[in-house]
Write a structure and sequence with these properties.
The complex is a heterodimer of chains A (388) and B (140).
Chain A: E1 7-14, H1 25-40, E2 49-51, H2 61-68, E3 74-76, H3 84-97, E4 103-110, H4 131-134, H5 141-156, H6 160-174, H7 188-193, E5 196-198, E6 201-202, E7 212-220, H8 221-226, E8 232-242, H9 256-267, E9 276-279, H10 284-293, H11 302-307, H12 325-328, H13 337-348, E10 363-371, E11 377-385
Parallel strand pairs in A: 2-3, 2-4, 9-10
Antiparallel strand pairs in A: 1-7, 1-8, 4-7, 5-6, 8-11, 10-11
Helix pairs in contact in A: 6-10
Chain B: H1 15-22, E1 27-31, E2 53-57, E3 61-70, E4 83-90, E5 95-100, E6 113-122, E7 128-137
Antiparallel strand pairs in B: 1-2, 3-4, 3-6, 4-5, 6-7
Classes of the chains: A alpha/beta (388), B mainly beta (140).
Amino acid sequence: MSIRGKAFIAGVHEHPERHLPDRTLPQIHADVALGALSDAGLSTSDVDAYYSAGDAPGFGVLSMVDYLGLDCHYINDTETGGSSYLVHAQHAATAIAAGHIDVALITLAGKPRTGGAGPGGSGRVSGAPEAPFESQWGMSVPGGYALAAQRHMHEFGTTSEQLAEVKVAASTHAQHNPHAFLQDVVSVEEVLDSPMISDPLHRLDCCVITDGGGAMVIVSEAVADRLARHCIPILGTGSFVKSSQSGRIDLTHTGAVRSGPLAFNEAGVTPSDIDYVSVYDSFTITVLITLEDLGFCERGSGGEFIASGALRAPHGALPFNTDGGGLCNNHPANRGGMTKVIEAVRQLRNEARAEVQVPDCELAVAHGTGGSLATRSASSTMVLGRSL
Amino acid sequence: MKLPAKAAQPNSENLPFFEGAEQGQLVLPRCRDCDFVIWFPREICPECGSQDVGWFEASGDGSIYSFTVTRRIPGGWNKVTPFVLAYVELDEGPRVMTNIVECDPEQISIGDRVEAVFEEATNRDGESGPPLLRFRTTES
């Protein structure tokens, strides 16, 4: 069974704030849930399925279904870090295709700026089997991605200047987003002159830390047909867990090498058909490696591809992250998967900001990465269309 | 400067590794069915699924697969920057996360030959625990 064209994104909402000292975490989940339902033209009473990940407080799905007053017969709390929300969307589309549900709500919220640490790690019981062999060495989050960047540079000659262009392109987009956490355009030199965090990643190679959240509502064709809103069909999905490869880890690729083809094949399209991509951007290196993995450029040539200006909207070969992405706009709860989907929906609805709207945007990809490139990670890819 | 050295808490599945470390030996698990050298230490072979796992003393020699010099980091590690976080590829195959110590961080390169050193470690209560597996560079 394929989910192609069976499920539709009917509503999305990104919290406009980046600093939320006076709202509780459940309130932010509620803010974005109500926003996405309103965008779709639906209400909480229409929801029959709810999905959240480790950023939902307390008992997760149980606490939030109760708090929001939902009536759900289908629930899921898959936790794969920043890609969780794309995995949820895949699961919701599958359940819709199977006829189990009609209206799925997925929420993300967090307060890493004003409310303490988010759901670092898994939010599960301690005793991970790998922990005694990985937690002793001072691996920060940037440090782990730096290991991947260093190896990619070694094997393929990728440069810091090429990585910096990812940030530069994101910043040129973010200048048009009044909600973006960072709205100033930066140059390659400014990226390279920012403090070194963990060689070769500078501060400006790293994503922002913001409060906020986002939500999406996924509906069946029957529901989509009666809504006034432009509903975006889900054409293909794919997810893959890249393990530490039995201790022979290759740091120069991600699970996108598997999740991408699954999604493209289900959609019946190829990477060259794609007009816009929302690609996970926890760090500049995350973007570069993922673009190679998804097949937008040859393996090892991501640096050249990026340096060509390909990522710049609206006229680059492959405009990316037109909201400014996690590098400039927003990385709520230290998780970027939700906002990736939201901006892809804006592009396909022709509702991105005018300066960065991709002309005739018919096909888009949203891609999430969770966990760490340095150890184990979960990739999830979704192909979306303007219409069926 | 000495890097933080927090002792691991061994369990019944990975105990031979840590008992080896107490003796200054790098002891690794190997599948008795397919001979695969397993990393991280566990009593299941991720290659063939067998739970018939034996243990052997490895050479302790390897080379740097990747590394980063960390210059800013939250918490106690910030006191010891710059320090080297690395993956070392052991001559027996596995790539293990570790630190490169007794070195000038600015002189480290991918491919450098390294050897195991076991560094004293303590637990939260200040009691000594299994030593940590770190590496230092060798004359090629």
